[in-house]
Amino acid sequence: MGYIELDVLDNQPKRIVIGIDLGTTNSLPAIWSNGRPEVLRVEGEPALVPSVVHIQEDGTAIVGRSARARSLEDPEHTIHSVKRFMGRSLSDIDQADLDRLPYQVSETERGLVQVEVRGKKLTPQELSALILREVCAQASAAMGGAEIMSAVITVPAYFDDAQRQATRDAARLADIEVLRIVNEPTAASLAYGLDQRKEGTVAVYDLGGGTFDVSILTIEEGVFEVLSTNGDTHLGGDDIDAVLMDVLKAEIGEAIDPAVLADPAFRQAARLSAEKTKIQLSSSPEADLTLSLPEHKIHVRRRITREEFDALIAPLVKRSLDCVRRAMADAKLAPSEIDEVVLVGGSTRVPLVRSEVEAFFGRKPHTELDPDQVVALGAAAQAEVLMGGSRDILLMDVTPLALGLETVGGAAEKLIQRNSRIPCSVKEGFTTYVDGQTAIDFHVVQGEREMAADCRSLGRFKLSGIPPMAAGMARVGVKFHLDADGILTVTAKEESTGATASIEVRPSHGLSEEEVETMLEASLANAKHDFEQRRRVELIAEIGTMLRHSEANLPVAREHLDRESVQDLEEAIAAAKAAQKSSELDEVQAARDILDRATMPLATVLMDSVVKEAVAGKRLGDV
Predict the structure, then answer these.
(1) Residues 101, 268: Cα–Cα separation, whole Å
(2) pLDDT, tens digit (0-9, with 9 covering 90-100), for 462-504
(3) Is 3.40.50.300 the CATH classification of the domain at 237-313?
(4) pTM here?
(5) Residue boundaries of the structural domains of the chain
(6) What tens digit of pLDDT does each residue of 98-108 get?
(7) Which of 65, 98, 209, 419 could form a disulfide with 25 if both were Cys (CB 3.0 to 4.6 A apart)?
(8) Which residues are known catalytic residues?
């Protein structure tokens, strides 16, 4: 297993802060090490952690690759693409998307989206917390068991306040301190080291699994200033998959029983088939779109050419470029004035996406870095800056949507305009409208529409304690403060008396403080069980690495070790393989320890061999 060295000062370990890309399809941890950002992975294992959660019959959760492997055999209890539900109500989600999900989605009394599985009702924040824990577990294993407590987490630039609050709540439930929430396009620019150029204007096109956004940035002497951002939180690889799923349904025909289309097994199989075909078409001129469900007498094979695929997804690519045009207009720039174009997100591997972006800007975009890793690498670079690293960088981001209050008659009074630089503060005066009024109800909204009903409701609060006066006499100053993470707080003050109230706006579709506390208490109550589950997963991963090395060197053991030592090793290998399937921590731990002891004679032989090879042909004075 590879380890990253940690600096130690006065026997106190250096505070570890990692960067996390919490993605729709996959998530990933990274860290700054040896002067550059590096992805954190366990040796011999894939880097990406699938953002998938499987709930077992006993109610315990499996996350990541193991969960994704259950997608076909148990689709109804395997949850994917939960990022699209963060900070959302059920009414915000397109019914067509809900119809494609293999699992059940409902809403709470307050309108929160929740996933119903095995009698449990889980919010997107709780599910995202499970994913974050798995990401941190991978990071910890990659660093030899170091404890991960702090992180920089990325979000789409076009995430609104409710979605950013939901991300923070998920981190809190995962027991992670969030040092900063960074927009994904900004993180991508850091990963490419664009801060190292003296000056320039950069467009970052980020098409992920579930969301799209674009940011226009200027860079001057290490200062990143976001001029504008635009996007669509309902546009990504999932929507490309949906187009191919519709092709499958058309091939099956209208005669199929509607109950079959609603079957979780059908929905999951169709989604995975579409995803596979999409990936193949990124590197091949044609691919087969197949679906086989014998229990429903469904056997479909449809050849899809690259040209046909491009025609099918062209409207989706056009939607993304419409967002780019709006961002360019807000930045008051022409495509020819862009110096660098960066592609981010796994969906930018689609050839049509790359060719259309290149045609729009008239220049070849940066694709050197893995689009699935670039955001996490950038988050690690920002973590290094926040921890006092040597990179002299200043990020000046913007808010994607206007923020304001509902006024009399239902109009939306915008206090902070779209694309305002953050952090920022704005103050506006309000008054009473009824004689003797001692309280004012405020409704905080986000959006570009003129009427509050057409904007996003972020929350409501009441300022009480206003002295009874004639209508219009009270003077109430309301201050909006948007911090560097894009999180909003509101403070109200009655000027004549100095009475104040500070309100942390909790989004209408976010978790209440009480709900977060309840979830945290449940987490503490299950801490021992959760720790054992995590430890078991880590041990199984460690056993996997030990088994690969042990089995690869069995011929050496049989040649150089005595019969008893070889027998002990072979028995330990067999027991370790069996323990990989065990749900009991003690059994897995014992198998790991036995294998460790059994490999010691082999390790000695291998080390002796290395030493002999190193000193071969040398005299004593040369060594």
Answers:
(1) 7
(2) 777 788 887 777 888 888 888 877 678 888 888 777 766 655 5
(3) no
(4) 0.71
(5) 8-236+314-396, 237-313, 399-510, 526-615
(6) 888 889 998 88
(7) 209
(8) 21, 83, 184, 206
